Predict the structure.
Amino acid sequence: MIWTCKNCGLVLPMEPHEFPIYCRCGLIQKTHDAEPVIPNGITVKEIIANPCKHQLPTIEHRECKGCRGMVKIKVNGCEKHGECTIVYKFAGVMACTRCDDYLETVESTSV
């Protein structure tokens, strides 16, 4: 069985019992029949383009236990939460895609 993200198009092989799925773009699909959601409406692409005002420099690179191979996830400092990652990967570490405190560094201009 495969799963395809409706937001970024990522294709993942999976077992039927592997829900919830947390895609790298921030999309979460809780069950097979549930409509996938991005909790605060912010995508990874948007966060990379406009990092949060609370984000501090990188603290470390931690090994992702759920990823195949030797993948290291960047953990940044955070003025609000101590440390953060762009997407959810580690218990106790806030993810920008899930954070209600996320504030873009670039102010939007209205015309």
Notes: Helices lie at 44-49.
